[in-house]
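Record format v2
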Amino acid sequence: MAVTTPARERTRHEIVRQAMNLFQAGGYNATSLQDIATAAGCSKATVLYHFSGKPAVLAAVLEPAAADVAELVKAAAQLPRAEAQELAIQRFIDLAVEHRGVVDVLQDILAVIEQMPEFGQLVADGMRLTDYMAGSDDPLERDLAKFAINGLLGECRHSGERTDDDLRRLCDIALRRLLRRA
Amino acid sequence: MAVTTPARERTRHEIVRQAMNLFQAGGYNATSLQDIATAAGCSKATVLYHFSGKPAVLAAVLEPAAADVAELVKAAAQLPRAEAQELAIQRFIDLAVEHRGVVDVLQDILAVIEQMPEFGQLVADGMRLTDYMAGSDDPLERDLAKFAINGLLGECRHSGERTDDDLRRLCDIALRRLLRRA
DNA sequence: TTGAAAACTGGCCGATCGGTCAGTCAAGAT
DNA sequence: ATCTTGACTGACCGATCGGCCAGTTTTCAA
């Protein structure tokens, strides 16, 4: 028991992996526990053996990206405002590209996620990240930052149609135009 | 029978009105026919008496905005490219503000709408509108136009928090920065 | 080898969904 | 007074959902 049982981790990981694909392809609400179980090669009961419920599966799918966002917010917190903005823009694009699948999932649960207490930290981090990206307290700049994030979320969809590099280039141009950092 | 029966139109209109509110507040999938019926003060069977099914209710909600978009696309079609772009930007913002409730609804059904044949025309018009807003065949400009539309869609949410004028101003600035028309 | 813990599953539950249908009811025409 | 028709509804249907539980199979330390 020094290491976690390999079988447990393998099954858990496969469930999360397949859930990610299904959430991305059809959305969270349109994906049933049975769909996830079938894709993962186990029974629905097994999914509920490893996770307390459907929201817990979602949380596991989002977790790596959420951790990266939390880390980014913490890093930006101890920087002067201008540098924090630059860091937020740069790293946020990187994160969006790296976790583009998760971003895609996030898109159709934004309305739902805000009333799930288990995602409160992620929502709060998202708000703070928006503040850093805005670079000032000007309401217009804050709205433009939100505008930029919404646009970026939309661009991460249809994953197969664009390479990571193309996506990164596009987001970089768009954010710098919007936030006047070019 | 020279005019349509007043009772019929009154009930139909109330169903559409309440459906719009509910779709906007909770999304299309999360709103049941029973919810709509209760809000409209009639039975679920009555909703299905007036509309062939749930997608038909959605179509009725989207119809006025869809008609305006179709008209805009037709108008832009017979203009030189630069003028078509200016018209598309200007009018699209107006339409988004005027139909911000519909835009809000549209947000969470973008993935679903593409596989419903009854909305093929609306999807096609949206694509053509994107082309006009891009102003050129440059793939980057097209992507930026899509980026702009996605951002704008996101900004139309949380309707109560911003006045129409504020929303119009924000979208105008954002689109002109993104598309380099300022 | 064995026994207990971990991993897993089939079958079931209550709830809710979109949708159907037979029939009620008021109103206008004859 | 009777009939027709459009508007409307309660009751019901099959399907599917998330979740639960009793019980089986696998794994592995002693």
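The first helix of chain B runs from residue 6 to 26.
Residues 5, 7-8, 11, 42-46, 49-50 of chain B lie near DNA strand D (CB under 10 Å from a C1').
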